[in-house]
From TrEMBL:
Record bears the keyword Transmembrane helix: yes
This protein's UniProt keywords: Membrane, Transmembrane, Transmembrane helix
Pfam families referenced in this protein's UniProt entry, alphabetically: DUF2254
Name of protein: Putative membrane protein
Positions of transmembrane segments: 35-56, 83-108, 129-148, 160-180
Amino acid sequence: MPRGWHWRGSFYNEKPVKTMKTKIKYFLDALQSSFWFLPLIIIFSAIGMAFLLLYIDSQWSYLPTSGLVWFILSGGAESARTVLSTIASAMLGMATTVFSITLVVLTLASSQFGPRLLRNFMYDRLNQVVLGTFIATFVFCLIVLKSVHSENDYLFVPNLSILFAELLTIANVILLIVFIHHTSVSIQADKVISDISEQLSHSVRKELPSTQTLNSTEERKSFEASKEGYLYRKEVRNEKNGYLQAMDYESLVELAQDQKLLIELHYRPGDFLIPGMSLALMSGQKLVTDDHAEAVKNALIMGKIRSPAQDVEFAIHQLVEIAARALSPGVNDPYTALTCIDRLTVPLSYLAQIHFPSGYLYDDEAQIRLSTKRISFAGAMDAAFNLIRQYGSGSPTILIRLLERFHTMYVLTDHKSHQQTILRHAKMVHQAGKDSITEGNDLQDLQERFGRFL
């Protein structure tokens, strides 16, 4: 039976599950979010296509004797050089234009939505495809242009390659129009907020599927009882500063099973770590060595910035940042903040209805091997609404909308603990309104919304 691990009673079934290594998935995600990877692939593909078409042209002379294609390709070597030179110059100019537009969009996004939103624009596939295609067409034309010869008795005009370059040019003009339209839509606040909300909902459902879990209290007692039989302890100390971006849970469970260890992680993705902090506590039936500690550290991915790979709160903070900027005195855009509140309600309503995984991972022998820190519903609510409440405490519109959305979540959930968390936030909003609202009618509206919880 293959090796594997699962969350007991959570989104993995009782059979071991083998998944792609976390580091590989993290590396692929980093490549996808980079601005250079896809353009480079397109450029190298264009280089390969250029040599392939030139080879075909050298083996087979393609020159129609009539029709539209003949009209386009007629003219000899000098005409071919002129066409290729014109296309190359135009593509370089269009690539410069696209690059300039992209920089303007990134600058606007940074100032309007916050610098942490730049990743979303860099991740945009169309921006990468457009830039890569224009530069690739330029490189393609240069290679084909060099192959055109008309000296002495040797004449070589790669008509098939030239026809392909002309078709690429037409496609690039259409792509430029699509790019301009896409850019004008992508910088609209509602579109940005909608995209982030979809990413957040996807991340929440991936990391926290809607399934049952065992009683976390019983699991904690079982884990602590198991530790009593392990005589040796070793703290794993951090050596670098930065954000914990992802964890390779599979490798940690396999390490714990092979070496008969219990591993208790103290942090989760999204936490900021400094040297000397205790990353984990390992308990073993035999001496736990530095090699074991190094293996644990190798399973943790750290970086200078936060990553959405396993960090559910990452997208929450992006929406909160947009709302906080909208509520600042310099911007004063309550409608954008209201949109953020509405969008945050969607994933939070989902979280209010599910059972959260306990955070204990089992090996394929149904033994607890790993204790992890997991996000809670209370933590997600705090991350989503505390800052918005604080920035919007003087706005009746914001406070009333918060109470309305809290009531929506309150009605949807059957979990008493989640209802208590929602009610706690509703009370804080109600108190903020009583302290800051001076208009009697606004205060009456706030009281009416709060009364729905009672």
